[in-house]
Design brief:
Shape: globular
Number of strands: 45
Radius of gyration: 27 Å
Number of helices: 7
Helix content: under 10%
Oligomer: single chain
Largest sheet: 22 strands, antiparallel, barrel
Strand content: over 45%
Amino acid sequence: MFVLELRKHSAWLGIWLLAVYAAVAAAQPPARVLVVDLLRALSAAGVNVLYSSELVPATLEAPDALPHGDPMSRALAALAANGLVLHRTGEATYLVTHGQSTPQPSAAKGPAPAPRPVLDEVSVFASRYEFTAGKDGEPVEFSDRQIDEMPGARADSVRALHTAPGLASNLSARPYVRGAMLDDVLFKYDGIALTEPFHFRNFQSVMSIFNPFTVDRADVYTGGFPVKYGTRSGGVIDLTPASVPSGSNYSIGASLLSYDLETVGRSDTLPLEWLFVARASSADRVLRRLLSEPGEPTFYDMVGRLRWTVDPASAVTLGWLLLDDKVEFTSEPEEGHAAGRSHDAAAWLRWDWTPADTLQGNWSLAFADTERDNNGAVLWPGIATGSLAAERSFSTIAVRNDWTYAVASGLRWDFGGEFTHETAELMFHRQEILANAIALAFGRPVDASITSDQSPHSSAFGLYSAVHRRWQDFEAEIGLRFDFQDYQGFGERRQLTPRINLHYDFSDRWRVYASWGQFTQTQRVDEYRAEANQVVPDPASRATHVIAGVTHESEGGANWRLEAYRNHWSVISPYYDNSFGQLSLLPQLGPDRVLVVPADADAAGLELSAQRSFGPSLSAWGTYSLSHVTDDSSGREWLRSWDQPHSANLGIAWSRARTSVSALLGWHSGWPKTPVTVVPASGATPAYLLVGPRNSSRWRDYFSTDLRLSTSVPLSFGELSLWLDGTNLTGRANPCCIELYSMSTVPAVDNHVWLPRVVNVGFTVTVGRSN
């Protein structure tokens, strides 16, 4: 009930809480604090600072008169009063040193309004201890600048991540990670796990809820991720919310895709940080191109976040997320129709606390509610006739607690736990009659009708612990995770999964690493195969990841990484697949719909990525992946439908003054294809389909050229940005799928293509203020 009310009144709730926070803070007089407490406050605000305990002793006091405002401004003033400065040593690192108070790293007296500064979110640690000297595992990192300059990502940050090695994608914004299925990837935002944060999930999930204004950084784990990430077996995409060290930005914009309202900032007088982004679809021209069908798609979404620094050692965050979309398509000629709607609401409350120099922790409470409806009908004489009505709702309550304890210099202990309660309402009603020849060609019954109505619910909890030890050149992280699920009437499940990550720096610029671990994935109650009338949950999927890699950073600004991996699923859930391809508005009514029941599965590959800076204005990057992914089913190996043996991306970005240009070339091997031939009628024998072995052939190679142009014009009150974002600008037809249709009661086939030429243009007006 709480989630339903939140969904209706979340905007007013955010305004009301902001007013309450302002009233409470107004009653609190300023207090004399220690400098070390101000540096802890930066930890709660998400800034990484290195300092010596001798340079900043625990007794060092801040001056009596500190400016009101954000933690960065207060810390800078306190350090300057003691003859210290905050010196920037890298994109995500600051160092406290002796010196003058200028220049200030926060750009307090910066130029006219500009987009929010780049500031990655990491943790504060003193020289005596190391909370996060390095990341566990080896994620592919994307800064907000990298996301902003990526072609195709102007309206969707997640699309920028597709250039990471090991990710495969088609029309959908949801990526396949190293051969794993779409549902095998864990999405997190602001530390909160989200369930499918995508629009038009019934129709290829063509865009995520996150535009570049909502994200400061993305960490993409394609394998070997630490034990704190549980519940999924394929990969992790962890998004850090946007923030600024001081000041605020307000912007409005419009494009062929959406109208946008955005603001991010910090209060001058209150210890308050905020983020608010809202979008609503404009014309449906771009959406129709993305969905590759005529129709009337619409959407809106909202992402909000308020962060209150309670004291130098703690902060409270309130976040919320809303998503809604609907779409309706009618085939030409009248062969059927399809319609769908999705509605999501999520809210979370988190408390970050640093009770001591050696201990950090956080608690979070999250609520989520998802509704998804999908219906339609097909009329293909001589092939199939049928109708579909499917409704799926899913609600979760999740509680999580994480701790990091710096036992000694170079020795860290991470531990925590989480509890989740899930409920779902699943209704699936399909009436479908297949022609005899079609049913025979695909090995399906003539009458494929089914009715299912389930209300499953479950509870689950997980515990994890990991020790991270660093010597001079060697790091090791050893972790263990325990998960338990109670499906309340249908049994219990338990899993124990160990993981090991190793790193060795054999010089200042060369680094080798290796990882081994087991990863389990239990079936959520919303993932029941309703079209198979599933009642009893599947056993948890279990995957083993083995990874080895080497990285190098040169003095000339170039760095590269080579990584080899093998993932083996010893236990895996059955899944549905359409033999003729993924591009279908009603895949559940497709005659080519098959249930794949693997005994196990394997993915293996080699990935190379490199990037080079040619000065402050020009940079380039590239990736190449060699991979192979199969299911072992019915005693033989079958290619998964998204297997791509070779893939490569090559990008370049140039910027000067207020203009930037970036281009991306993408190529990969054609995805597997199921061959089919229409055998014409002969005498008394009617025409029929001759279908070859599933995924035994391939489509031709995929190629796309994407471009992004942006320029800005200073205004008296801010800045005007004009931009163009285009994908597949050459208009290349990349065949992906087979369309089965009826021609005077005789079956016929045609090829479909994905990702047509899509051009989106728009503008943004920004009013910025720096302190």
